[in-house]
């Protein structure tokens, strides 16, 4: 485990510990110091939620989950995992509400949104192309995109297993599927020269 | 074998995504992983630029909400902690009952002291009701008819005919009203006329030994008779005798 991963795990544990002891002011100071607000808002924004809503959601998460439910965490060592797991559920719940209010697209449109976007713009960089494909992938496969996000954030397979609530083998299999599913999205950008 | 190879590719892909240098890795997978990682880092930077570094309103709102919850929670905590553990609740109930019982005992003790202080040793004024050769306790016939059998009406209770009045000459002291002049005969005469204060005074005479030999049992009996007529002070003195162990 890298030092960065360890320190992030330690930071989350430290904050939860302070909330448990009722030292919420100190916990919030650390929350600010470790830039967790920015990290969490960024995470929520990547799921397609605008800044204002993301900020509100993280605020709600800090009060309702971090403060109120800090005692419900069984293993405090996995506090960071718990935080992301809870936040993901909140985003999914919000997504469901948004989905309910949104008009359902026609089958043809839906099929199109689930396939990689064909690049037609000239002069685009490969990096920019992949960024766009990543956004597209999130829309098409939100659950798989979440797993890729967790991998990129440095979570171990064990931690991702806890977030997904699956067995170790099933999680590895799911991660493998994520890689395979994302491949066609990247292949489109391969033709673009840097 | 095939499965192991796939697992290795997956692990290499994960490690590369997490920024770990992997040797002997499939070139295509490495390229994919690196491109994805770079795109992710660039996206992160872009999003981070959209989020302000400081947001005082955010922390202020959180602090206010937490302090509100804290005040709500503190009032809830007492009940929730009480019902959290059944054994604890049972123990608290038992201890509480014991405490209430002990308090009651102490209270009773305090009351007995108060009763002791309430021990009345002054004779009560019996008024000038001593009637020689007569009785105050008239029945319906005596009340509404004169001695010749004539109907006097209901006013007879308030205005007794002058000739029927049998009052002692000395109106100042009937010798059963003051400690100094209590006499057994007068008090007995009044007591027999159902005078509650006279009965009380008799009790007091026997208790304190005024003009009679001190006799707590006689005193108790007279207090009892007075109390039966509703005299609260007689009851109080009766309790005093019992609590002091003077009668049994």
Helix and strand succession of chain B? HHHHHHHHH
Category from helices, strands and their pairing of chain A? mainly alpha
Ends of chain B: how far apart?
Answer: 104 Å
The gyration radius over C-alpha positions of chain B equals 48 Å
The number of helices of chain A is 10
Whole-number average pLDDT of chain B? 78
- What is the count of β-strands of chain B? 0
Overall strand count of chain A: 0
Helix content of chain B: 55-70%
Q: What value does the average pLDDT of chain A take?
A: 81
Helix coverage percent of chain A: over 70%
Q: Please state the overall shape of chain B, judged from the principal axes of the Cα atoms.
A: rod-shaped
Topology record:
The complex is a heterodimer of chains A (194) and B (248).
Chain A: H1 3-20, H2 24-33, H3 36-46, H4 51-67, H5 79-101, H6 107-113, H7 126-140, H8 142-152, H9 157-164, H10 168-187
Helix pairs in contact in A: 1-2, 1-5, 3-4, 4-5, 5-9, 7-8, 8-10, 9-10
Chain B: H1 2-17, H2 27-50, H3 56-84, H4 86-117, H5 140-144, H6 184-191, H7 196-208, H8 216-228, H9 232-243
């Amino acid at each position: 485990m890298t030092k960065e991963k360890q320190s992030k795990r330690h930071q989350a544990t430290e904050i939860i510990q302070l909330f448990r002891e009722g030292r919420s002011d100190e916990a919030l100071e650390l929350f600010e110091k470790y830039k967790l607000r920015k990290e969490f808002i960024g995470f929520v924004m990547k799921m397609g939620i605008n800044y204002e809503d993301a900020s509100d959601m993280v605020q709600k998460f800090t009060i309702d989950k971090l403060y109120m439910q800090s005692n419900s965490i069984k293993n405090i060592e996995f506090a960071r995992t718990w935080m992301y797991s809870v936040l993901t559920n909140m985003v999914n719940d919000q997504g469901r509400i948004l989905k309910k209010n949104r008009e359902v697209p026609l089958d043809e449109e839906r099929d199109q949104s689930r396939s990689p976007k064909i690049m037609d713009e000239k002069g685009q960089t490969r990096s920019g192309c992949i960024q766009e494909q990543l956004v597209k992938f999130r829309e098409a496969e939100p659950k798989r995109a979440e797993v890729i996000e967790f991998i990129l954030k440095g979570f171990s397979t064990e931690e991702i297993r806890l977030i997904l609530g699956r067995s170790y083998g099933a999680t590895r299999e799911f991660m493998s599927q994520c890689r395979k599913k994302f491949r066609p999205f990247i292949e489109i950008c391969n033709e673009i020269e840097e | 074998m095939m499965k192991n190879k796939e697992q290795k590719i997956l692990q290499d892909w994960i490690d590369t995504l997490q920024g770990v240098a992997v040797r002997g890795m499939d070139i295509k997978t490495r390229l994919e992983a690196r491109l994805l990682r770079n795109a992710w880092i660039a996206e992160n930077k872009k999003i981070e630029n959209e989020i302000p570094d400081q947001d005082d309103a955010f922390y202020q709102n959180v602090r206010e909400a937490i302090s509100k919850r804290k005040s709500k929670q503190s009032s809830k905590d007492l009940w929730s902690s009480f019902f959290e553990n059944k054994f604890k609740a049972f123990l608290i109930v038992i201890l509480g009952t014991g405490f209430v019982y002990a308090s009651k005992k102490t209270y009773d003790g305090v009351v007995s002291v108060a009763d002791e202080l309430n021990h009345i040793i002054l004779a009560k004024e019996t008024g000038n009701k001593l009637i020689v050769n007569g009785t105050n306790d008239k029945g319906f016939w005596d009340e509404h008819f004169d001695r010749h059998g004539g109907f006097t009406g209901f006013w007879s209770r308030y205005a007794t005919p002058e000739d029927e009045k049998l009052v002692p000459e000395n109106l100042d002291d009937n010798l059963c009203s003051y400690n100094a002049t209590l006499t057994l005969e007068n008090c007995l005469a009044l007591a027999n006329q159902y005078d509650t204060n006279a009965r009380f005074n008799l009790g007091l005479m026997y208790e304190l030994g005024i003009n009679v030999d001190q006799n707590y049992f006689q005193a108790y009996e007279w207090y009892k008779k007075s109390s039966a007529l509703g005299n609260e002070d007689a009851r109080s003195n009766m309790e005093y005798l019992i609590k002091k162990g003077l009668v049994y």
